[in-house]
Design brief:
CATH topology of the largest domain: Immunoglobulin-like
Number of strands: 17
Largest sheet: 5 strands, antiparallel
Radius of gyration: 39 Å
Number of helices: 3
Protein name: Copper binding protein, plastocyanin/azurin family
Helix content: 10-25%
Shape: globular
CATH class of the largest domain: Mainly Beta
Structural class: alpha+beta
Strand content: 25-35%
CATH architecture of the largest domain: Sandwich
Length: 311
């Protein structure tokens, strides 16, 4: 047995060892806690930085003018826009175009073979001058698109008729330019619904006052008839719209409406003989298309003589 002093000394040494172990454990726990706290602080700091970045990005987006925001979505280069195409084919043998009565300024106009233009059909049934245009309202227009369009739409009084016979105009961007190329005086008259009527007199060409510029102020739901009060056989049509989503079938029967934003849109078919061109699947000449990015082809649209009231 150890002496009491030794026992006491031994006891005191062991007690010191236990206390030291406890202090070291406490130190390790404190260090570990500090490490955890530091990690939490770093994590919170990173989260805060990411949050601030997102908030800044959101603030930037919200501060961008709306047209610019639209361009991010409706960028032609990004392939986000659609194009609507199709071809009109007249089924059957078209009637011979009627020769019109020319009884004014005969010395000038009598030398031309002036015929009815209300039904123009090509050798293989290609149907020209069918209007196709957007009926839906509020369809966005990509920014910068106006720059792709000519500044004016021209109607020429030439060879004692209006050329071209059918026109359309984005009236908020384009002006209507009228010119007389004939050596006789001409008149251009039209009355848009809810807009200013026009009764323009053009002097014989060449010379002064042979042209004029007109501005439309209201969109029209269908083409406006243009006449000449001097020469009753002269006839043309123009469709003023507040957007660029329209087309007129060409001599090959085809039409093309580019730059359409994706979405479900309603369109109208119109032809001067019947106005609303009603066909199977096109009640009252209307149809709805879900426009997707890229080409949206309606294919061949067959038009019967009965649908154009051809007997």
């Amino acid at each position: 047995m150890l002496p009491d002093r030794q026992r006491e000394g031994f006891g005191e040494g062991r007690s010191g060892t236990v206390k030291g172990d406890a202090m070291r454990s406490e130190s390790r726990r404190t260090a570990a806690k500090r490490t955890v706290d530091a990690r939490k602080l770093i994590s919170r700091s990173r989260y805060r930085r990411e949050f601030l970045k997102k908030l800044a990005a959101l603030g930037t987006l919200l501060s961008v003018p709306r047209p610019l925001v639209s361009s991010l979505v409706l960028s032609e280069e990004g392939g986000q826009l659609g194009e609507l195409t199709g071809r009109f084919i007249y089924v059957g043998t078209p009637p011979e175009r009627k020769k019109l009565k020319v009884d004014k300024d005969v010395d000038c106009c009598g030398k031309y073979d002036i015929r009815d233009e209300s039904l123009l059909v090509g050798p293989d049934g290609e149907l020209a001058n069918v209007y196709v245009y957007l009926r839906s309202r509020g369809v966005p227009v990509p920014p910068g698109l106006a720059e792709k369009f000519p500044k004016r739409v021209t109607l020429d009084n030439r060879d004692c008729i209006f050329k071209p016979h059918c026109l359309a105009i984005w009236y908020t961007v384009q002006e209507f330019y009228i010119v007389n190329s004939d050596p006789i005086a001409q008149n251009v008259a039209f009355t848009p619904l809810g807009d200013l009527p026009a009764n323009i007199i053009l002097a014989p060409a060449p010379g002064e006052k042979t042209d004029a510029t007109w501005r439309f102020h209201r969109t029209q739901t269908e083409p406006v008839h243009i006449v000449c009060n001097y020469h009753p056989w002269e006839s043309a049509y123009i469709l003023p719209r507040d957007n660029p989503y329209f087309a007129i079938s060409g001599s090959d029967g085809t039409f093309r409406i580019p730059y359409l934003p994706p979405g479900e849109w309603e369109f109208q078919l119109w032809q001067e003989r019947v106005r609303q061109l009603e066909l199977p699947g096109y009640p009252r000449g209307r149809f709805t298309v879900t426009v997707k990015p890229g080409l949206n082809d309606l294919g061949t649209i067959r038009v019967s003589p009965a649908s154009l009231k051809v007997t």
